Amino acid sequence: MTSPKAQGDPKRPSPDEHKPRNDVEPGDTTAEPETEAEKTRREQATKPALMPIGDPAGAA
Fold first, then answer.
1. CA-to-CA distance for 50 and 5, rounded, in angstroms?
2. Which distant-in-sequence residues (6+ apart) come within 8 Å of 31 by Cβ?
3. How far is C-alpha 54 from the geometric centre of its chain's CA atoms?
4. 4-55 pLDDT, tens per residue?
5. Given CB 3.0 to 4.6 Å as the disulfide criterion, which of 2, 17, 30, 45 pairs with 6?
6. pLDDT at res. 47
7. What are the C-alpha distances in Å from 12 to residues 7, 25, 56, 60?
8. Rg (the chain; Cα; Å)
């Protein structure tokens, strides 16, 4: 049986080669700031629902 090194390791980028996955460069100032409505919508999308789904009195 061969060692894992003999099969080849996938190349891992160095921190210098790593690029963030967003499409805006770090120094780019052309991106418009987030509006209050967009911020509120994003925050609400990550919060759990306050009301349980189903019959609040119970099925029994």
1. 51
2. 24
3. 30
4. 555 666 666 666 666 666 555 555 555 566 788 888 888 887 777 676 677 7
5. 2
6. 73
7. 15, 22, 52, 57
8. 24
